[in-house]
Amino acid sequence: MLSKTQIAQRIAQELQNGWYVNLGIGIPTLVANYIPKGIEVEFQSENGILGMGPFPIEGTEDADLINAGKQTITALPGAVYFDSATSFAMIRGQHVQLTVLGGMEVSETGDIANWKIPGKMVKGMGGAMDLVASADNIIVAMMHTNRAGESKLLKKCSLPLTGVACVKKIVTNLAVLEIVEAGFKLIERAPGVSVEEIKNATEGNLIIDGEIPEMVL
Q1: How far is Cα of residue 69 from the mean position of the Cα atoms in its chain?
Q2: Is the residue at 216 inside a domain?
Q3: Does the annotation mark 46 as catalytic?
Q4: What is the pLDDT of residues 155-186, one digit of tens each?
Q5: What's the CATH code of the domain at 138?
Q6: How far apart, in whole angstroms, are the C-alpha atoms of residue 106 and residue 166?
Q7: Which entry of 14, 40, 46, 108 is annotated as an active-site residue?
Q8: Domain annotation covers residue 135
Q9: Which residue segment(s) compose the domain that 20 sits in?
């Protein structure tokens, strides 16, 4: 199974030259550390920065330079800072080519729940609702199952939804999957993980078409 770092490495392979990319809180923030050679992208954070770099080396952190998850970050040469109105105008205006989000649950129709667990206090949905409503290309980074071993890739989400029919691709610790009309289409499997293991860990409809290759990290 993949670690969180390896999930980020696999998602980084989806980046294309010249893209503007928004990275959500959690695993998605790690993607900035693994930009493929020869690729130039601009990472955007909804709290008001375009041009995020990788996480800082310990001891070089700037407490005033943070991402939307309040983690200290670095800024690349040419990075710019702006207010929230400008940041969300970029998102709502569909100027961001890829959004990478964490997820608690994803349904076979591409619904995502990633902001609230009933009974637990939360401050609000934050920028997630704008991202899922405006982005055409959403990849979700998540664990395939919860701590009890229950699937998080479901026929229907049980948690409050963040967005409906918006997810395009999912990268978990077990597999890479695409959302298609019939459900979760298995694209790749984590090294050493069998198709049968992925099938057993997926509650939603899993589509298996031919031989499924292992991921190359």
Answers
A1: 14
A2: no
A3: yes
A4: 999 999 999 999 999 999 999 999 999 999 99
A5: 3.40.1080.10
A6: 10
A7: 46
A8: yes
A9: 4-207
In a domain, 212, yes or no: no
Q: Where are the beta strands (DSSP E) in 126-189?
A: 138-141, 153-154, 169-171, 175-180, 183-189
Angle (nearest 5°) at CA 25 between 64 and 35: 85
- Amino acid identity of residue 13, one-letter, is Q
Number of domains forming the structure of the chain: 1
| 175 φ/ψ angles, rounded to the nearest 5 degrees | -165, 165
Does some domain include residue 46? yes
pLDDT per position as a tens digit, 79-137: 999 999 999 999 999 999 999 999 999 999 999 999 988 878 776 777 888 999 999 99
Contact between 174 and 197 under an 8 Å Cβ cutoff? The reply is: yes
Place of tokens 């989000």: 101
Q: Is the dihedral of CA 20, 144, 10, 108 positive or negative?
A: negative
Strand pairing class (183-189; 206-207): parallel
